[in-house]
Amino acid sequence: MENKLMLQDVKKTFGDGDQQVEVLKGITLEVKTGEFVAVVGPSGSGKSTFLSVAGALLSPTSGRIMIGNQDISTLGTKELNQIRLKYIGFVFQSANLIPYLTVRDQLLLLPELEHQKHKEAEKIADSLLERLGLLHRKNHYPEQLSGGERQRTAIARAWMNDPEIILADEPTASLDSERGRSVVQMLADEVKLREKAAIMVTHDQRMLDLCDRVVYMEDGRLMSHPSVL
Amino acid sequence: MFLALREMKHAKMRYVLIGLIMVLISFLVLFVSGLAKGLASDNASSIQTMTADYVVLDKQSDQRLNRSELTNEQLKELLRLTHKKQMTEFGLQMTTIQKNGASKKTDSTLFAVDPKGFIAPPAAEGQSLKGADKNETVGDLSLKEEGFVIGDRLKEETTGTVLKLVGFTKNQSFSHSPVFHVSLKTWEAMHDGKQSVNAVALKADSEKAKQIEKQVSGVEMISKNDALKSIPGFKEEQGSLLMMIAFLFVIAAFVLSVFFYVITLQKVNQFGVLKAIGAQSGYLSRTVLYQVLFLTIVSLVVSILLTFTVSQLLPASMPFLLNVPLVAGCSVLFLTVSVIGSLISLYQVIKIDAIEAIGRAS
């Protein structure tokens, strides 16, 4: 099966001179089409940095990153911007929606950034909202939504530009377990339905059964089993 | 525009309030500018409306029209060096005028001009000056409001000459007093032929002016603007108003830049998210710029309407003059200043890193 995302011995070092800190110590990961991978680990293990590097927000110090068939490890800021816009969907902690946009406008912002036609985009947005059960909320502002609805809106936004891969940064952090579960379920369903891929960083153990694969992050390394059980 | 308009719509109160401040500041700018212009014209419209490029003065006059005195030799020299139609001499004198039979005295300035020369004022009402007739005068329209009518006999205080008012002229004042124009012949007769002229108005380019200044001894050539500045009180009046206007522009720039700076700081996280999902810095900067421009333009339109409304309500005696070039100039300057004020926010927006979005609660 085709790889949606591939990291090959990716290292990331912060600081310079004597103060160097190696946060990612050689990470190798392949995420295939239709796969939903969870990354679990204690805080300070490098999860956020991993997500930033995989999500084209940070360039790696060394190693190779492929999204689809494209090598993004050596691209500049502007190109990375375009990669994020076209191939990556983000779901952030506690939604991070734009407070002055209605649910529908949150979605329409993406085609606006890509200078695409509005008519088609409106159709796509409406069908996404319908599938995620948000159509009755489409003219509401984030402040009027419940936590779960916000996170669902964020998921709808992440799918809006039809990305190859979704990166979720603790999407259930601000939700109770029932709502959190339904949000993750939704994410998993969409991944299967669209034949894309997703990575979710979380320390919520209850959600792991919804994922196809769980990898553990410890001290800048990924492993398939936790070192301490 | 997508983000800019939606945000302003959502946070109406915030933007209405800052817009209101901008309206007040720009209103003050326009109002003080109108006042400055009005005062300038009230002070010295006789010089302002003169269709001359240069004024020739006596070198010892310290650039003051009323102190200058040109000799006949100098006049002859000037006439030799320039075409007759390009120059015209004039005299002026501060005086008081008394309507025959009335006790009230009016401060005014007497201008002696060649009725055929290019600085002779056209009549707005009644007749204009004619060379042949002696002891006739035309006065500024503001005198009409003070009860002067055509046909009045007016006594000039210093010489006791009685002048006949034959017409009114428009926009003729000097040092905040209305101007009476008389012909040079009348002027001579009033002073028994002893009074010479103060200055010569000249139409010439700067090169020619310099050349003339060199060749005629004891004269100084000053531009019309310098002549205006040399009128007692003119420079001081305009200077203090101009300083107020300049400060208002600086204040406007600061108010806008602080407002947008604070708003941008508040939105660092939001801009981070936008950049993370793929918005370019340029797109976000444009959003801020659109908001600044939108706010400034709307405020300007409101304050221009406000200023024109207020100017209609002002008493006629209040010197206030607002014309299209002045308003346009102020508006352009205001827009420029607001864009400069937004630069600090634009820099802020560009500096924000998309990484702000990761690992953070909103």
Give helix % range of chain B.
Answer: 40-55%
Main sheet of chain B: which strands, in order across? 2-3-9-5-7-6
Overall strand count of chain A: 10
What is the count of DSSP helices of chain B, taking H or I runs of 4+ residues? 11
The class by helix and strand makeup of chain A works out as: alpha/beta
How far apart are the termini of chain B? 24 Å
- Count of extended strands of chain B: 11
User: What characterizes the major β-sheet of chain B?
Assistant: 6 strands, mixed, barrel
Return the domain count of chain B: 2
Q: Which stretches of chain A are low in confidence, meaning pLDDT under 50 for 5 or more residues running?
A: none
Measured on Cα atoms, how large is the radius of gyration of chain B?
A: 29 Å
For CATH, the homologous superfamily of chain A is named as P-loop containing nucleotide triphosphate hydrolases
Shape, principal axes of CA atoms of chain B: elongated
**Percentage of residues in strands of chain B:** 15-25%
Biggest sheet of chain A: strands side by side, in what order? 6-7-8-3-9-10
User: What is the helix/strand order of chain B?
Assistant: HHEHEEEEHEEEEHEHEHHHHH
Which two protein chains have the largest interface (Cβ within 8 Å of the partner's Cβ), and how many residues from each? A-B, 36 and 26 residues
Shape of chain A: globular
Subcellular location (chain B): Cell membrane
Pfam families (chain B): FtsX
Domain ABC3 transporter permease C-terminal (chain B): 243-353
Keywords (chain B): Cell membrane, Membrane, Transmembrane, Transmembrane helix, Transport
